[in-house]
Protein 1
Amino acid sequence: MADGETLDELEGAVVRCRRCPRLVKWREKVAREKRASFQDQDYWGRPVPGFGDPEARVLVVGLAPAAHGANRTGRMFTGDRSGDWLYRALHRAGFANQPDSTAPDDGLELSDAWVTATVRCAPPGNKPRPSERKNCREYLEREIDLFLDGLRVVVPLGGYAYAHVLRIFRDRGWSVPSPMPDFSHGLEIELREGVPRDGRAFVLLASYHPSQQNTFTRTLTEAMFDRIWSRARELVEG
């Protein structure tokens, strides 16, 4: 991260990015062809920046924008069923002012939470390649740096985001367990910076992703999801 970088500057860098030809081609194709139910809407069709409270102490990390969700609306987890689940749960836990997430101008505001993703462009089949994850990693790292001093909780949604976040902090020399614990819903890991016990620290709190695959099969229920955000609230308030 450049010294003194702001969230607005990072957002500009994210939105202009064209590092991954496959993702650029796909996101723009989806934005041109559209889904029938959204034919009258203008699609965003670009990388999607993070969204939320600039003073957040809770960082929520998803996988990637949905083709007809955030790739359409331009706001993370907005306009699809995963976002409906996420923002309903954040609202119940007091992190959002309303339970709905339909469009960037719908009045949604987050309090003490910031929502982002490992990859900023919608990938075909919702499966980014390792090279695309690597290309996008810099943006998440720069984002983390902007929140790090006040960070109390990181909630990766799903095993992909969980492993990605742990790799970032392991590579930075933080106290990541070795071997890395297997992903599980509700898993908590305290991560500390370097060796001193009085260094910066936060809790990684893992959650299933609120994808339809998980919610339709009841792998993730609303009660299970609510417990994640209630616990995040406890950790923030100390």
Note: The longest strand covers residues 58-62.
Protein 2
Amino acid sequence: MRWRSRPVFIVNRTPAAVKTLQDPKLQAQLSDPASSAPQQPPYADNWHRSVKPEYSVLVGICTHLGCIPMFYPDPSDSLPAANWLGGYFCPCHGSKYDLAGRVFNGVPAPYNLPVPPYRLVSDTTIRIGENPPDVTWDFASIAQI
């Protein structure tokens, strides 16, 4: 899907995938595990970077040079990189993000993947580009895309 000409990744994360987001082994490898840089709206400023833990909504543009990361949700010993824990891999320069779009240490990307404004209209419908009621947040306030 695209929003404002940007690719948007929407993923229904499994309970096992959600559990890995709080794994200390993973968090120790992340550059900004607490999402301190303003790359998400206030309603996604949490450990899962989303309105509900099971749903991930991210702008799919690497924060290094703007390539589109590839989705590799399953852990692997070798693909797309050694000791892969699952998430997004940028094929252009090797930046890695976990399943919440948090960037790993030691890669070119400086920030987590951005979270666009969105709201859950129902259990089966997400509206991209619109904040939940009573929330005002402008996507232009993010640190970088």
Note: The chain has a mean pLDDT of 94.
Protein 3
Amino acid sequence: MQEKWFYRSSKQKKNLRLLETGPTSKDYKSHDMKRVVGGLLVQTRQYPDLKEKEMKAVTKRKPTKEELKDMLFAWKVNKHVKSNSIVFAKDDVTVGIGAGQMSRVDAVNLAIMKNEDKIKGSVMSSDAFFPFRDGVDQAAKAGVKAIIQPGGSIRDGEVIKAADEHNIAMVFTGIRLFKH
């Protein structure tokens, strides 16, 4: 019965994407499962450890050793924050978190608003790519020095250009950290 309904529904939706995963791991402890309308959302709870050598510097200014250390810390924190998430960190301390927003720039603004006086000189981690440069522009106004993000937007060039204009170092990880 449900397959017929789904078939009719999929015919009506032009941009519907169906993904077939094949067999899932028998290690259910490594997955987080949530019921959603019409199905089940299964996502990993484990992301690969990110090494400094796996980060790709994409801006004219490369991050300093201290910035790299803080970016790795912010990225680790970001793995545990609900999407869409932004994490600001400095000296191995989280100084701002913005999450659950519909837009990336809103997540940046929320994180800044929570602890504006401590953001200056921090690094910023984003769990997903920046679809527009506005998030980078807002982070620059707050005093962010470096950004770590997955990359992969069709507008990566514009985002990198914004970072270069603000003298912000930016690295791409190629790893999205979405957590629902």
Note: The chain is about 35% helix and 20% strand.
Protein 4
Amino acid sequence: MSQPAADDKLWCRRYHSAPNAAARLVCLPHAGGSAPFFLPVSAALSPVVDVVAIQYPGRQERRTEQPISDLMVLADRIYAILRRQPPLPLTFFGHSLGAIAAFEVTRRLEADGQAPVRLFASGRRAPSTYRDENVHLRDDAGIIAELRKLNGTDSSLLGNDEMMQAALPALRADYQAAETYQCAADVTVACPITVLTGDSDPKTTLDEAKAWAQHTTGAFDIQVYPGGHFFLTDHAGQITRLLHQHF
């Protein structure tokens, strides 16, 4: 069952108007992330590109909603929203949790005859590579310790107990969605995949990043950047140029 159209604006954030855009970029955030993470991308590519940043339930202005802890349910919900958007050539950019969510939404769109143009998968090992991870089962302090290790959360937020307590339910659900996701090695999409990875990312080895190649029957390439799991914040200019070249 599809959601009411009124829900579209809950999920889709457009920070810059692009009424005459010739293409659409849909950005999916990492675990614990939110749509404004992609505000610089929107500023750089609009109005030539219709940049849509996905806002998952359970954070910011959606904090009263139940977060989604099942990756396949999350993909179903995003797919239902995107298939109602005005038709434009569609590209995905997903980071970490967002990368595998984008892969699953791509599968659904292709099955529906609405194949995306390309998937940019950032900061995530290939869908079929498995790690026995259990961050979502840790206590609150254990989840916060994981955030500190990845250096992707503002230190002022990590030190604010009230804000962290408000964020933890969505964080836990996001980690559960990412850590319980499973995909067979022979599951593929047809659209080309570009993988972006950090050379010292503790969550993704180079071999795990390269393994994305087996999940597309289209073209594949990989871009390796210096840095850890949030390498993209240190190389925003290079990544924006890469996206400019694509469009």
Note: Residues 13 and 95 are 17 Å apart (CA to CA).
